[in-house]
């Protein structure tokens, strides 16, 4: 899900759960997974549909805060 789409969803009905997990294709990086109330899950992506991944947890959390999210579960 693109960042702009995530902002719209968050302003409408929000997400049920947000998780920050290790990237399965590169365990040195983290990704954000957003869960809707209907059970569907999405990886957070940039506007060019590239998955947002970073070795820096702060980068991920700042992006989530920018979307309007207030909490997330972090898995190391």
Key terms:
5 strands, 76 residues, single chain, 28% helix, five-stranded mixed beta sheet, alpha+beta
What can you tell me about this protein's structure?
There is one protein chain. By secondary structure, the chain is of the alpha+beta class. It has one domain. Helices cover 28% and strands 32% of the residues. The protein has two helices and five strands. The chain has helices at 3-12, 57-67; strands at 17-23, 26-35, 41-43, 53-54, 73-74. Strands 1, 2, 3, 4 and 5 form a five-stranded mixed β-sheet that branches. The longest helix is centred in the last third of the chain and has 11 residues, at 57-67. It is globular, with a radius of gyration of 11 Å. It starts with a helix and ends with a strand. The mean pLDDT is 96.
Report a brief summary of the structure:
By secondary structure, the protein is of the alpha+beta class.
Helix content: 25-40%
Shape: globular
SSE order, one letter for each helix or strand? HEEEEHE
Count of extended strands: 5
Task: Write the topology of this structure.
Elements (H helix, E strand, L loop, with lengths): L2 H10 L4 E7 L2 E10 L5 E3 L9 E2 L2 H11 L5 E2 L2
